[in-house]
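Regression test case RT-17, inverse folding.

Input:
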């Protein structure tokens, strides 16, 4: 206390902890974190609290005087942990994985310690240059085309927060390119507002909702966004012929097609749009093709899965999330572009206070010009530490383990003697889509509503047990349960236990439905 008072009187920063106290409390926090990982399996996977629970437990004002750290941590255990859905649980099979790891956590700790805001090279050279290095490493792991690697030319990568941001940034780059082309062509007659009203974008009805959000933020009228229907006949992938027909119709109407999003590994069913076919259509008509591979891109570090993104060489941009399946804590979404120039046209900002010799030399990257926010965290630290700690071979094995778990769960469904379930679509990577068979429930297959209600009951019963967590989707109107494998702590025994719980719960519901 005397030291704090002396430092405060001398004009030093106010702090609730001395360095010695921080060291001691940090050790306690590390123990808490390790204990959490060792006990996470014991918690209900999905939080069991009701909406608004926390407001009734915490004061309605911030404390006027600082509190003891032990008191704060006691409230974490008492009030915060019950409201956490445990994404790191080995029984988390919802959405797609959101894995963390010890090396990644330590990278986050170091990033928070140095706390640089790496908007420009001069703001912290290591922040910029390490990002360039690790992005090139990952591009080579994925065997991406040379322009994406960024070691020469104008292409390269940039770490975004999420795939949603990456899609928006790519859309803004495509819009900037379309404006540049029109400006060069029309000269003094160029009318930007008129052009904006004519821009048209494309995706499938299986694309992530963030794609429409990107169009909305970019100012593309909703009437100018085309959703190409993808059906089970095509395994819910985009029909490139339907895309081209839509583009030609729009061009005939005097509109300007400028951007198409192809998805490699959709959220609903992990479907893969045909990148080669779509890329050829995009090139014929002058569209920017962006590949959203937020989940499935991770798998392509394995040679046997790399063909899933064949055709990426025709893309203008490619994105996937290290923070989904590759053991890097959220947020770490990698966006690669063949030509950064269009992103800089769309996102570059100036100001006398930003001028410096390094930037003006053109020899460095200022990442502020390749993203929506101005400031940015030192994300590449955690990525670097994950890559160095695991190495490519262990990361590949992690991917393969998740795929084996999905194959095991699929086998249980297919070989089930009671024939209780059917696959909604062919299992893809770590995702299994399934539902109760109408024959097992004695429900007319045409009674989709009744089948949907029964599958929702199964989902709710399993999730409310706290023993695992899944979500659902709809495929051509049919409720389908999603079982997404790939957790770092998930072992074969968890897959077997999950199957048994789902099968037993289905039995009870089917029997009660028959009654």
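Golden output:
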């Amino acid at each position: 206390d005397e030291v704090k008072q002396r430092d405060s009187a001398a004009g030093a920063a106010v702090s609730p902890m001395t360095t010695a106290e921080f060291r001691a409390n940090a050790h306690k926090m590390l123990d808490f974190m390790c204990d959490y990982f060792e006990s996470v399996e014991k918690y209900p996977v999905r939080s069991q609290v009701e909406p608004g629970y926390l407001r009734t437990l915490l004061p309605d004002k911030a404390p006027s005087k600082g509190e003891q750290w032990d008191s704060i941590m006691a409230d974490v255990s008492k009030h915060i942990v019950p409201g956490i859905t445990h994404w790191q649980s080995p029984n988390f099979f919802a959405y797609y994985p959101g894995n963390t790891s010890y090396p990644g956590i330590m990278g986050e700790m170091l990033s928070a310690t140095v706390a640089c805001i790496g908007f420009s090279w001069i703001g912290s050279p290591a922040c910029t240059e390490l990002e360039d290095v690790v992005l090139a490493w990952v591009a080579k792991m994925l065997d991406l085309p040379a322009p994406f690697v960024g070691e020469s030319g104008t292409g390269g990568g940039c770490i975004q927060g999420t795939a949603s941001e990456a899609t928006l940034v790519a859309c803004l780059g495509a819009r900037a390119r379309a404006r540049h082309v029109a400006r060069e062509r029309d000269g003094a007659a160029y009318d930007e507002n008129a052009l904006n009203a004519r821009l048209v974008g494309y995706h499938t009805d299986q694309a992530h909702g963030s794609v429409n959000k990107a169009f909305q933020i970019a100012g593309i009228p909703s009437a100018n966004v085309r959703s190409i229907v993808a059906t089970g006949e095509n395994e819910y992938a985009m029909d490139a012929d339907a895309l081209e027909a839509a583009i030609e119709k729009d061009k005939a109407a005097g509109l300007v097609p400028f951007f198409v999003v192809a998805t490699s590994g959709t959220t609903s069913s992990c479907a893969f749009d045909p990148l080669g076919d779509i890329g050829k259509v995009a090139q014929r008509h002058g569209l920017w093709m962006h590949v959203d591979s937020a989940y499935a891109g991770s798998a392509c570090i394995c040679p046997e899965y790399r063909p899933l993104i064949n055709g990426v060489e025709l893309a203008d941009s490619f994105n996937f999330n290290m923070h989904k399946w590759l053991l890097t804590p959220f947020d770490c979404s990698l966006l690669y572009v063949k030509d950064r120039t269009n992103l800089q046209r769309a996102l570059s900002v100036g100001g006398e206070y930003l001028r410096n010799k390094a930037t003006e030399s053109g020899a460095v990257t200022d990442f502020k010009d390749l993203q929506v926010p101005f400031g940015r965290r030192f994300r590449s630290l955690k990525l670097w530490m994950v890559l160095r700690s695991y190495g490519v071979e262990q990361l590949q094995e992690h991917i393969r383990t998740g795929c084996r778990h999905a194959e095991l769960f699929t086998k249980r469904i297919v070989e089930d003697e009671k024939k209780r379930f059917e696959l909604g679509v062919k299992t893809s990577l770590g995702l299994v889509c399934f539902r109760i068979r109408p024959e097992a429930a004695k429900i007319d297959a045409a009674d989709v509503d009744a089948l949907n209600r029964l599958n929702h009951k199964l989902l709710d019963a399993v999730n409310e047990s706290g023993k695992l967590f899944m979500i659902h989707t709809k495929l051509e109107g049919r409720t389908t349960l999603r079982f997404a494998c790939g957790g770092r702590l998930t072992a074969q025994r968890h897959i077997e236990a999950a199957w048994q719980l789902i099968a037993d719960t289905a039995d009870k519901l089917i029997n009660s439905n028959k009654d």
